[in-house]
Design goal:
This protein has 247 residues and is of the alpha/beta class. 34% of the residues lie in helices and 24% in strands. The protein folds into two domains: 1-69 and 147-229 and 238-247, Rossmann fold; 80-142, no CATH class. The chain has helices spanning 46-53, 86-90, 92-96, 102-114, 130-142, 160-176, 188-194, 222-226, 231-242; strands at residues 2-14, 19-31, 35-39, 61-65, 71-74, 148-152, 180-184, 197-201, 208-212. A six-stranded mixed sheet has the order 5-6-7-3-8-9, with helices on both faces. A three-stranded antiparallel sheet has the order 2-1-4.
């Protein structure tokens, strides 16, 4: 069952002097429970795709089909408010949506307990490591119970070692909570290690060049997938795609 479908989606941005086509006839689906990544050349319009999916902008033509799917958006930085405790940061989305019911509060508290942040709930963001902050940001997103998670390079601000650990953390949480995820990343290794499928975009205006399936789901974590004998060959293939080679 599809949680998301893009059908021949195009997006043109207009200014007083010119028009810029960011996306052209883009089509792909995301099925329930999938982790799908989007990669493409720098500036090709990857983040524009997330903006279209989240309905922050409307397509110029084509259709974005979400049905009744609730969307949660996780940004490049954790965007935690330094003057709010971790618990109050986690509850922020529910407050904004006016859904801070006893049941929803209990669910958010359960997430904090389940994923190792309950004892830090009264701490402030500056007192947490980068990885813990990112985990708190994910729990804040999950607390609103989205069906589809949009992840816009959420690990890019972290150092390499922390990034590997947080990738494992985030992947485990998303799978444990049975969520569907759409990730934008410029990191080929990250895409291979996390994804059920990878949508490869062309240079702008972005359209689908290829859809690649890593087929590493028998391995338990992103870190273990990086150790697979098939990993380097898949990296080379996707690297060629990003440089315009289709064979």
């Amino acid at each position: 069952m599809n949680v998301l479908s893009l059908k021949n989606v195009s997006k043109v941005f207009y200014s007083k002097t010119q028009e810029t086509q960011a996306v052209s006839n883009l089509s792909f689906d995301v099925s329930e429970g999938e982790f799908v990544s989007i990669i493409g050349p720098s500036g090709c319009g990857k983040t524009t795709v997330l903006s279209l999916v989240s309905k922050l902008i409307a397509p110029t033509s084509g259709e974005v089909v979400l049905g009744d799917s609730r969307v949660g958006y996780m940004l490049q930085r954790d965007q935690l408010f330094e003057w709010r405790t971790i618990e109050k940061n986690v509850l922020l989305g529910l407050e904004i949506q006016r859904k801070l019911t006893p049941e929803n509060r209990a669910y958010a508290e359960d997430l904090l307990k389940k994923y190792g942040l309950w004892e830090f709930r009264r701490r402030y963001p500056s007192e947490l490591s980068g990885g813990m902050r990112q985990r708190a940001a994910l729990i804040r997103t999950l607390a609103t119970d989205p069906r589809l998670l949009l992840l816009d390079e959420p690990f890019s601000a972290l150092d390499f070692q922390t990034r590997l650990e947080v990738c494992d953390d985030v992947y485990a949480i998303i799978k444990s909570e049975k969520k569907t995820a759409l990730l934008v990343t410029h990191d080929i290794s990250e895409a291979i290690s996390l994804s059920d499928r990878i949508v490869v975009l062309t240079a702008r205006p972005a359209t689908v060049l290829a859809i690649h399936e890593p087929k590493l789901n028998d391995l338990p974590s992103p870190l273990k997938r990086r150790e697979s004998p098939d990993f380097s060959a898949q990296f080379e293939l996707l690297h060629r795609y990003l440089h315009g080679e289709t064979k």
